[in-house]
Predict the structure of Succinate-semialdehyde dehydrogenase/glutarate-semialdehyde dehydrogenase.
Amino acid sequence: MKSTYSLFIGGEWKESVSKRWMNVIDPATEEVIAQVPDAVAEDIALAVNAAEKVQPEWGNTVASERSKILLEAAHLMRQRIDKLAKILTSEEGKPLAEARGEIAYAASFLEWFSEEAKRIYGDLVPSSSASKRILVIKRPVGISAAITPWNFPAAMITRKLGPALAAGCTMIVKPSELTPLTALEMASIFEEAGLPKGVLSVVVGSDASQLGEAIMSDFRVRKISFTGSTEVGKILMRQAADTMKRISLELGGHAPFIVFPDADLDAAVENAVLCKMRGMGETCVSANRFYVHQDILEQFVKKMVEKMSQMKVGNGLQEGISVGPLIEPAAVEKVERHVQNAVQKGARLWLGGKPLENTTGYFYPPTVLSEVKEDMLIMQEETFGPVAAITSFATEEEVIARANDSRYGLAAYFFTRDVGRLFRMAEQLEYGIMGANDGMPSTAQAPFGGVKESGLGREGSKYGIEEYLDIKYLSVGL
């Protein structure tokens, strides 16, 4: 890993107009691991200028050429998986095995959309007149921008960049200032893969709101894709209205995990731990609220405690570590506040429950709570940490109502061997992503996105590329 990086603007590696630099911190050691230029609004403008120049040519490139570049970038990512994983772990914290998994997952979006680039089809619509023909064609939206989070610094870029490039759109990526290194490494990969200059820029800075406003206020940027908090998503949606940008939002979640008495209990527990502890619980689809039928509650809790007590906490670069640090001190403080609020209101603490003492880094151990109530913070807000909050339920109707009693609607999970119940749950739960006997449903070929205040639009799958295409129709007089 390099000690200093440059911004990637218009196909060139540059310092920021500001001439300032910012530090990248390893959350496991609290040490500075690299420095990157601290971009400002003028850097965004340079990136948009470069994209504007090349957009017409890139938008008219034949699909097979765009496909070839995406496929080569995916190949290079897989070829360098160990290097990229170490950089990702160093700046984000997740264990090395998970980081490798994320790089492979990120590459899968490039591979998927390399294929979808060749399947952008139009239509011939029957006309109401014998002297006319109606053609429907799809064209790239134009310059697009991706604002991505720190928790998946590779995959959240490719899930947006893949369809944008496949559709013929140029893109400016603004990664999180907490995890910029992976994004800049990926820019280098696309440069090597043969992407024309100006098609991709990666711009990162400490003032995220300034950079976001520069993107949103520029009319030339026609499409925005954002992954992050609901609060920021609402701000971007308001800003998008001024220039009528197309916008996709993948926002916060508060996922219920429901276990019925007929479920395979061991499978449910195994999936619960995977779903809860992936990325230390710092994912938008992590299980937050565990609803377990009252007949099996005690067994479930004991099995969860047994599984989670075996998870080793430490620096993700070390062998055998399954729980890395949280991203920053504020993340630890939020988890601590949620746990303490629950305990004070009567929740039973089985495991963990306080930050690790006398250690360097932002660590919080796996924690299990039972007897949680709906008025506790942990049942109302997204915790984003390694805490399993468990409560009981009695009937199917009750648990559906409680699971849906949230302004969020991103992901939900339920475990049952009753086929009829499976379909009832799928139809009645108000969530965009559902795992039925599956705690890890995310994949490149499936449409990822939420309902209610968890966002708009879908990423991945055949639907993902539609977000970057305009539909036009042509009426031809014969």
